[in-house]
Design brief:
Blueprint: H1 2-10, H2 13-20, H3 24-38, H4 54-80, E1 86-93, H5 99-111, E2 115-122, H6 124-132, E3 138-142, E4 150-157, E5 160-164, H7 178-182, E6 186-188, H8 194-206, E7 214-215, H9 219-227, E8 232-236, H10 241-246, E9 250-253, H11 257-260, E10 263-269, H12 276-292
Parallel strand pairs: 1-2, 1-3, 6-7, 6-8
Antiparallel strand pairs: 3-10, 4-10, 5-8, 5-9
Length: about 300
């Protein structure tokens, strides 16, 4: 089963062989033995890449559950020994990688020096793929996914806001419209990010389309552009929570129903049971989500 999973992840027998340092023929032979054992084809024949049949998908799902169960067993035994060790891989949207989240992770690392942390960033689709493929224990994404492979552990309302300096002309308004924002210099994430996809619906509804002055997939560049006073960002409050709390930036609601209903979700693979270090960090983030669910008023 390991060879089948490696072939799937690598995309070909040859690439899987290179990863495992074995001949591609050995990969094919092992998969063939599995197919003989189960009496069903596990991969589609005649394709250049590796694509699973329905039976292959069932076998891979079973194998991934076995791996997760072994990991959970190991974590439980380590907990019994009171050894605070382990490894945690979390995947988050770039928009969450601000000072507030960084502070949370730093405090966790300081309190648990023997736990190895890996924090990955990506688009919502990339994160959901990492979760489904067990490349990350859990993820934090903007909006709530509708995917049977993904379990939503926690969800909070987190509408997009116009983020600006306190002395900006729009800062004192109760809300701003899409048309008003279109007249401002904007700094926004790329079009394939979930934030932009949500904004595109609002733009279409209002028949007003943004032409951002700056586009970047880095939350730090978005924050710096606002901090320098050269642009207005459109982000959830969670992305600039520390700056809002300190009063160095303000958030103004955007008057659009689609934007007001957006959410942030803490997710993991359906059926996966976390234990030990991954569960400890997940619960810490879950507690922080409850704090982030309290809007900051400017």
């Amino acid at each position: 089963m390991r060879y089948l999973l490696e072939a799937l992840n690598a995309g070909s027998m040859r690439a899987a062989g290179d990863r495992l340092n074995v001949a591609p023929s050995s990969i094919s032979r092992q998969i063939g033995q599995l197919e003989s054992q189960y009496g069903l084809a596990l991969i589609e024949k005649g394709r250049r890449g590796v694509r699973l049949t329905h039976a292959g998908e069932i076998v891979i799902a079973h194998y991934r559950n076995q791996i997760a169960d072994r990991e959970a067993l190991h974590a439980k035994l380590e907990e019994l020994r009171s050894v605070r060790t382990g490894q945690v891989t979390a995947a988050i949207g770039e928009g969450f990688a601000g000072k507030s989240f960084t502070s949370l992770v730093s405090k966790f690392a300081e309190a648990n020096p023997q736990i190895r942390l890996e924090i990955l960033t990506g688009s919502t689709q990339e994160i959901l793929r990492m979760i489904a493929d067990d490349e990350a224990h859990f993820g934090l994404v903007f909006s709530t996914p509708n995917d049977m492979k993904i379990h939503v552990r926690s969800v909070i309302a987190q509408p997009l806001m116009a983020i600006m300096l306190p002395n900006h002309p729009l800062a004192a308004k109760a809300s701003v419209s899409i048309a008003e924002l279109a007249g401002e210099a904007l700094v926004l994430p790329p079009a394939h990010f979930r934030i932009r996809q949500i904004l595109s619906v609002a733009e279409a509804n209002s028949k007003t389309f943004f032409q951002p002055a700056i586009t970047s997939n880095s939350i730090h560049i978005l924050q710096d552009a606002v901090r320098a006073g050269i642009a207005v960002a459109i982000l959830p409050q969670i992305s600039v929570w520390s700056e809002l709390s300190e009063g160095t930036m303000v958030s103004v609601p955007i008057a659009d129903d689609a934007i007001e209903e957006t959410t942030t979700s803490l997710v993991l693979r359906s059926g996966r049971q976390l234990e030990g270090a991954p569960l400890r960090l997940l619960k810490r983030i879950e507690a922080q989500l409850r704090q982030w669910n309290k809007p900051i008023r400017h």
